[in-house]
TrEMBL record:
GO terms for molecular function: rRNA binding; structural constituent of ribosome. It comes from Usitatibacter palustris. Coiled coil: none annotated. Keywords: Ribonucleoprotein, Ribosomal protein, RNA-binding, rRNA-binding. One of its GO terms (cellular component) is ribosome. Belongs to the universal ribosomal protein uL23 family. This is Large ribosomal subunit protein uL23. InterPro entries: Nucleotide-bd_a/b_plait_sf, Ribosomal_uL23-like, Ribosomal_uL23/eL15/eS24_sf. Part of the 50S ribosomal subunit. Contacts protein L29, and trigger factor when it is bound to the ribosome. GO terms for biological process: translation. It holds the Pfam family Ribosomal_L23. Gene3D superfamilies: 3.30.70.330. SUPFAM superfamilies: Ribosomal proteins S24e, L23 and L15e.
Length: 102
């Protein structure tokens, strides 16, 4: 796994009410990842991106969500498929997305 690939694996954090509840209850963080990303790549990418926060990954669970069909009048479109990674953290490291936002 080269470092350039690992920087592209994680697309965005999922920030929602459910993601917040899961994070508080199970020490998990949810990320949107590339469709072809593996669990090992996701683990390495999280540890690489958040190494100054001393984050260690305990486990990675992956969910593939199919895009829904949506209508706009008589036209039928489709949302894109999404792959989400539920990353369980161990140790004292923590990921905070809100820190530094004014």
């Amino acid at each position: 796994m080269n470092q350039e690939r690992l920087m592209k694996v994680i697309l965005a954090p999922v920030i929602s009410e459910k993601a917040t509840l899961v994070g508080e209850k199970h020490r998990q963080v949810i990320f949107e990842v590339l469709q072809d990303a593996t669990k090992a790549e996701i683990k390495a990418a999280v540890e690489l991106l958040f190494k100054e926060q001393k984050v260690e990954v305990a486990a990675v669970n992956v969910v593939n969500t199919k895009g829904k069909e949506k209508r706009h009048g008589r036209f039928i479109g489709r949302r894109r498929n999404i792959k989400k990674a539920y990353v369980s953290l161990k140790g004292e490291g923590d990921i905070n997305f809100v820190e530094g936002v004014a």
